[in-house]
Design goal:
It contains 15 helices and 14 strands. With about 400 residues, the protein is of the alpha/beta class.
Length: about 400
């Protein structure tokens, strides 16, 4: 009989690229019986851009692409999960009895795979209650997509950060395997829990086949951005500024794959409307088609206040660019800078807070050096092929699960 895996989700959308499209589907392909416990907001499941599914996915339990989806109401669970800040006595009496934990228990899985700080808390409750109520020892995975709490982010008070970290270290004692998304985040955990088994599984896509080498001749340049437009991610004013500067120097286009939340297109100044193109949010598997026209990928993780999560990030879009042979231009962030310097696949602006002029100058410089762009393009694609594609990450995921339940 195949082992049963339950993905425990506190706030991500159920179609999240990492959780559903990659990990759950890969585990299903490996022969595991996979289910997911996922949140509704205001009674609805929601898409990757936050848009609620008002006319679909209405059943409490349904099957999507062969994976069982069990839903719960986020509003009925948050109060109990927030008991993570309380004592362990309160955890047992008030924290672990909630819809997320109860539905996960009912799945009677062998491995519980959690994805956020609060779903980890639910996972600790699942593990304890499974032993107490059913006499069953289950395995618990914490898939840390980012550092929570961010050790230096000032929007969380020092006292709350200290409490959150203390509770995290207690919870990690119950974890059987920790997965994370970058080497810097792994090192942070290793410094605190050196005996905890860990693996880095990067947010990389499946390897795109038959990628055509990019030509950087002529006077045309298209810069692309994939993902959410927010104040510290794809700042729209910077997009306008970059487009304003570059379009005066060459035949320039800015292509946005994704955009603002809830499907609302950006309001673009009239004179820039012919220059800035928006696809809106597209199906995960169609992203490569939209990438074909992009010459350089843009990532700007500017924070008004410095944070380790920005410094340690290797986001989905970073690998998506490289998969398509697109060099990356980024502001100064430790993990991406280390990667780019090692693999020579992009350009780093030496400022944590780079403005539109800084980025525009970088794009114009690279356009004047087409041989550098072509080399960066080849290097990025090559390193995805050899090391970082999802096919390689899938092997790492398989090893984690095999270590938890070795084949007799």
């Amino acid at each position: 009989m195949s082992k049963k895996v339950c993905m425990v989700v506190a706030y991500h959308p159920f179609l999240d690229a990492r959780i559903f499209k990659k990990e759950a589907k890969s585990l299903q392909k490996m022969g595991y019986d996979v289910s997911m416990i996922v949140p509704r907001k205001n009674g609805n499941l929601f898409d990757i851009d936050g848009t609620p599914f008002k006319k679909s996915y209405k059943n409490k339990v349904f099957t999507h692409e062969g994976i069982k989806i069990v839903t719960y109401h986020n509003e009925n669970t948050r109060k109990s999960l927030n008991k993570v800040l309380s004592s362990e006595e309160v955890w047992e009496t008030e924290g672990f009895n909630n819809p997320l934990t109860n539905l996960a228990l009912a799945e009677d899985a062998d491995i519980y795979h959690t994805h956020e700080y609060l779903s980890l808390f639910a996972g600790v409750g699942i593990k304890r209650r499974m032993l107490q109520e059913k006499g069953k020892k289950v395995k618990l995975i914490y898939d840390s997509h980012e550092l929570t709490p961010d050790p230096i982010h000032p929007r969380t008070s020092e006292m709350k950060r200290k409490t959150l970290e203390e509770k995290l270290l207690i919870m990690l004692k119950e974890v059987d395997y920790l997965i994370t998304v970058s080497d810097s985040i792994k090192d942070w955990y290793l410094a605190r829990m050196p005996d905890l088994p860990m693996e880095v599984i990067y947010n990389s896509p499946p390897l795109l086949q038959d990628v055509e080498p990019k030509a950087y001749d002529g006077n045309q340049l298209t810069v692309g951005y994939e993902g959410n437009i927010a104040q510290h991610k794809g700042n729209k004013e910077k997009i306008f500024g970059i487009s304003e500067i570059c379009s005066k120097r060459l035949n320039f286009q800015f292509k946005i794959i994704g955009g603002s939340q809830f499907g609302n297109p950006l309001k673009i100044p009239q004179h820039l409307a012919p220059i800035i193109k928006q696809t809106g949010w597209v199906d995960y598997h169609s992203i490569p088609d939209h990438m074909q026209a992009i010459d350089i990928g843009w990532i700007d993780l500017e924070e008004v206040h410095y944070s380790l999560n920005s410094d340690y990030a290797l986001p989905n879009k970073f690998f998506s660019y490289l998969n398509n042979g697109v060099p990356v231009v980024v502001n100064k962030c430790q993990e991406m800078e280390n990667f780019i310097r090692k693999h020579k696949c992009g350009y780093v602006i030496q400022k944590q807070q780079a403005d539109a002029t800084d980025f525009a100058n970088a794009f114009l410089y690279l356009k004047r050096n087409p041989e550098k762009l072509a080399k960066m393009s080849k290097n990025g694609r090559k390193v995805l092929e050899k090391i970082y594609s999802w096919e390689e990450m899938e092997k790492r995921l398989a090893r984690v699960y095999t270590k938890l339940f070795p084949t007799p």
